[in-house]
Design goal:
Length: 408
């Protein structure tokens, strides 16, 4: 999929440049070549600048992991997940793997979440009567993964900081609200297919409690003046993030973990991650740069703006849609679109913030589906794709709405 997307950007850019040449815009070829060099330089500078911030956050996350944050979240949400997956026998290891995977996803621990997710799929395959067909439990697990609530979207904070955002964490609450809407929509549509009883007292208590919390945040901030709302939202976001850091440290101290050594251990991984993404970032940003310089991207966006304006909508959200369209298909592509949007419009622009919120609202659906189902030989996915795409659509729509709410 990523190969096709990457190739498409170059081929479509080439075709658009030919068309523009016939209309007298022969400078397009120079602009495309210049853009390819410029974006390669931008990609390297971004990756280089990411090193310090990535080391910081992965070091902190390692402290949280060693301090029992994953175990704590597993205990907190274990009762809910046991009732959402009634087909798993009591005491089966699949339950523990699912709970641990969800907890790792909430904390943004991708390196831990993926292997735990694959283990959960293998555990679920053991109790699956039809080995080539996805079971209800597999489908629900996959849908929740593609729309998983992430409490601390570290990567997005990091990119926003590198792109010059005044307050990189100001999109914390919007992302939390959008990703919750995505997860709730995925759960509701999957429950409708699988006839899961959501009125179970435990399930209803969890869902109603979390929904009430999100609704209360929206109601509170909705009654504030725009400048006051943004100021208080930023204050709350940064307070919560730093509180999480302190709780990680206290948890590690209670387990007699050496904080400094643990931080350095995680920070080393941060350095490897930052350096490792250079080729991928260069490849994707150069392709997107060529696509925009050729005029092809502007053609698509201008058509979207005209359509939005014709039905009376504010068309500012159109600039964030490339990230939305890319997100279900390719994580690298969506990340490239987000960075390119911030590069073009500014990290603190409406479009830059919207792209960031969209990036954090859902996961990469087809990648998750391919990896998780492919790992256990599932060929018949039943209603998995439909449910996951409904969750994606809900998350993207919520991201647009909440960005207008906080930043318009």
């Amino acid at each position: 999929m990523l190969n096709r997307i990457w190739t498409f950007f170059f081929v479509a850019g080439f075709a658009a440049a030919i068309v523009r040449s016939f209309t007298g815009h022969t400078e397009v070829w120079q602009e495309m070549v210049a853009s390819s060099f410029d974006m390669a330089e931008v990609a390297f500078k971004i990756a280089l600048g990411l090193t310090g911030v990535m080391c910081l956050w992965l070091g902190i996350m390692r402290i949280g992991e060693k301090g029992g944050a994953v175990d704590l979240l597993a205990k907190a949400f274990g009762p809910l997940l046991r009732r959402l997956f009634p087909g798993i026998p009591v005491g089966h290891p699949a339950t523990g793997s699912i709970v641990m995977n969800m907890a790792a996803n909430m904390l943004g621990l991708d390196n831990a979440a993926t292997p735990l997710g694959l283990k959960a799929m293998k555990d679920l395959q053991e109790i699956n009567p039809n080995k080539d067909t996805a079971s209800d439990e597999m489908i629900l697990f996959m849908v929740i993964n593609t729309s998983a609530v992430t409490i601390i979207p570290i990567t997005i904070f990091t990119y926003r900081a590198q792109m010059g955002a005044v307050d990189p964490t100001d999109i914390f609450l919007p992302i939390l609200i959008a990703t919750y809407c995505s997860t709730l929509a995925g759960l509701l549509i999957t429950s409708a297919f699988q006839k899961i009883e959501l009125y179970n007292p435990v399930v209803f208590s969890y869902l109603s409690g979390m929904t009430l919390l999100i609704a209360s945040l929206v109601a509170y901030f909705g009654n504030l003046e725009k400048e006051v709302m943004q100021s208080q939202a930023s204050l709350l976001a940064n307070f919560l993030i730093f509180s999480v850091i302190i709780s990680f440290m206290l948890g590690a101290i209670s387990r007699r973990i050496n904080l400094y050594e643990t931080f350095v251990e995680g920070a080393k991984d941060g350095f490897k991650v930052a350096i490792g993404i250079v080729p991928y970032l260069v490849a994707m940003l150069v392709a997107i740069g060529v696509f925009r310089a050729s005029g092809a991207l502007d053609i698509v966006l201008d058509a979207g703006r005209s359509l939005a304006t014709s039905v009376g909508l504010d068309a500012r959200f159109i600039d964030g849609l490339p990230t939305a369209f890319m997100k279900p298909l390719s994580g690298s592509g969506a990340r490239g679109m987000m960075i390119e949007t911030m590069q073009t419009h500014g990290a603190d622009s409406f479009a830059g913030r919207l792209a960031s919120v969209i990036q954090g609202s859902t996961e990469t659906t087809f990648y998750v589906l391919a990896v998780y189902f492919g790992a256990v030989g599932i060929r018949k996915t039943r209603h998995a794709v439909i449910c996951a795409l409904v969750a994606d659509a809900a998350g993207i729509c919520a991201a647009i709405a909440v960005t207008y709410f906080f930043f318009a």
